[in-house]
């Protein structure tokens, strides 16, 4: 089984290495190893303590957070289950009991 990445154009798994490039024999697409390494980088989301967060984790809020557009506040110690990581400034998408769907910044939570 090949450990080379799949072709980014046709998703063929039969790619091979030629010098500093990968080549797809099905569509003749060529791309550099450097470009392939850059595309495989995955954004790592960490909580306030430096622990890596993943989809489905349970987190705890470590600071009172004002809810934009409302007079209510998410209190310290609020547990949030089954988070989803998303791209953007607010990198956690979740549902909080009593508040509904909300986006949080990872710097204001810790892994439970």
TrEMBL record:
Keywords: Hydrolase. GO terms for molecular function: hydrolase activity. Residues 3-32 form the Protein YjdM N-terminal domain. Residues 45-112 form the Protein YjdM C-terminal domain. It comes from the Bacteria. Gene3D superfamilies: 2.20.25.10, SH3 Domains. The keyword Membrane does not apply. The keyword Amino-acid biosynthesis does not apply. Belongs to the YjdM family. This is Phosphonoacetate hydrolase. It comes from Methylophilus rhizosphaerae. The lineage of its organism: Bacteria, Pseudomonadati, Pseudomonadota, Betaproteobacteria, Nitrosomonadales.
């Amino acid at each position: 089984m090949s450990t080379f990445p799949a072709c980014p154009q046709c998703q063929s798994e039969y790619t091979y290495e030629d010098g500093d490039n990968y080549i797809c024999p099905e569509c003749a697409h060529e791309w550099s190893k450097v470009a392939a390494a850059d595309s495989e980088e995955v954004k790592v989301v960490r909580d306030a303590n430096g622990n890596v967060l993943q989809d489905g984790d349970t987190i705890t809020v470590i600071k009172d957070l004002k809810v934009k557009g409302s007079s209510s506040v998410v209190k310290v110690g609020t547990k949030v289950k089954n988070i989803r990581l998303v791209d953007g400034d607010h990198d956690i998408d979740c549902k909080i009991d009593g508040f509904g769907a909300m986006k949080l910044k990872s710097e204001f939570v810790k892994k439970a």
